[in-house]
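To: structure subgroup
Subject: Chain for Friday's discussion

All,

I'm putting the inputs and outputs inline so they're searchable in the archive.
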Amino acid sequence: MLVLVINSGSSSLKYQVRDVEVGTILTDGLVERIGDSGAGGPADHVEAIDRVMSTLEGELGERALDAVGHRVVHGGERFGEPVLINNEVTRAIERLNPLAPLHNPASVLGIRAITREYPDLPQVAVFDTAFHRTIPEHAWRYAVPDELYTLHGIRRYGFHGTSHQYVAARAAALLGLGVDEFDGVIAHLGNGASVTAIQGGKSVDTSMGFTPLEGLVMGTRSGDLDPSILVFLGRAGWSPEDIDTALNRESGLLGLAGNNDMRSVVEAAESGDARSAMALAVASYRLSKYIGGYHVAVGGAKAVVFTAGIGENSHQFRALVGERLGALGIELDAEANLVRSKEPRVISTASSAIPVLVVPTDEERAIAEATAAVVSSSR
């Protein structure tokens, strides 16, 4: 089955075509500057999809697409698994726009663009939040008045679920365990970052919450902070838009070190820059606290797993986190930690009380496989 995987952003569209049975990538690409036709970009998502399809016609030859899989960030409480898209599902995703205003509207535009131009092509929505629907209520509840949940849906949803689920399965395989035997802590570390507690192969807690802002120190997001800071800033004259911009786009590594790229922050810290060194200390300390807490949440982790861009490639940051986990009996192998590879691997010593793994994620593969499974079962 040939699956087109689409990740629609507000002004860009990433795509990849995969042969699911063979496990190969046939082509991939990125359409940028959507809505900025003056700069050569497509006028809207319909035109962006047309550009993608025109490109694919030349690259795929006589092979035809069998389905399209869309990454959808927020599935709310309704969607706990990938679903075949119809008009009702599209409207339901659109109704969740207030919970993910930067992501869901773009996904809906991508879905409708395909529907308009290729109405007979099956489409599947794969939700970032779906894997976290197994989190128990005591972990997803916030200690706020009940009507905030019942009327506004304010609760922990969690994100990066597609990645966490994929990595949990590969980590279990590396340890010789079935997925339902895997208890561990997975740190998905990219410009956006989250850590998830996995028990019996299922998510039981995660650091991102109602939105992707909660939790770890990220590239431009603050992660956890005292909610009264928002009240303080509001009384000081900051608008909701000002606060949103500051916490989502100007904080995290960027706010602490002046740069949101982990490689640049590490290089600056190694060159003696105090702000960058402090940024790494804050970020590694925050993550180590979550790992310790989630070790308890899963009843004793069988592994700590690093994944995504920073988790897979920054041996320096992994070392900083590892140094803080000595109380758990964790010990990294300095040489193994330096190895760069696209294969899952162990980077802890033989005497480490808990194995530490690096497992590359592949969200596009996971979306393609989920799409193929849904389409096949619907026939």
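Points worth raising on Friday:
The longest helix spans residues 274-297.
The chain has a mean pLDDT of 94.

D.
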